[in-house]
Amino acid sequence: MNLYHAIILGLVQGLGEFLPISSSGHLVLTPWLLGFSDPGLAFDVALHLGTFLAIVLYFWKDWITILKLATHNVKLNNSSELQDSSFKKNTLLLLIIATIPGAAAGFFLDGYAETIFRNPLLIAFTLSFVGLLLYLADRYAKHKKNIENITKKDALLIGLSQAAAIVPGVSRSGATITAGLFLGLDRVSAARFSFLMSAPIIFGATVVKFPDFVRAGVTHVEVVGIVTAAISGYAAIAGLLKFVEKTSYKVFFWYRLALAMVIIFVWLIA
Known about the structure:
mainly alpha, 77% helix
């Protein structure tokens, strides 16, 4: 790894984690397409730490509100801060429910994530298939619900979709946003809930893999990767939320389909 590679992968992780295009898929594809060595999952930990910082920095006020709602007595929920919130007293519980399937998938399928799941043709398929589901959910579902209307059943179904993101190319944000849209969430609410529920899963993945990261050695290259992922991740969150206020997720379907075609073409001529 050098600084150039660290910056590229930091940008890829930050943008891919929050845009519905698959960070894990891009982290496998980028070295493959550009011809440098895959840094492996140990370096991925540094990049995930960067995106965790991005999600905490962007949503820190939301997290404070969610924790206040979860821990305050109902009689104390009279402040304008809590009354004006789009969250509910059980929003923290909903996020926990949504996190469990993804955490279980990471625990039981981690070995596959490091081996057979990192296959370019598999990524090409998952990119195009999940992209099509995102397009259909965005185009045909009724987007009338916001975060305040999410039920425990909704949270569980969105969490189950997150479990599929163990396969590169699926995209954690792509799967959860798609599920949210199919369940009737509006475009912004689907993205916000997806981002909020990403915090514990990214943090958990970082903690589990942190010993590998330390054993590999922490140098200025890893620090650059963390900082780059944090900055690009913050920009991706802010950009996507503003983008979907005015338009649809359709562009991401076309991007995913185009990338899948590029992968297949490169694989055929290699």
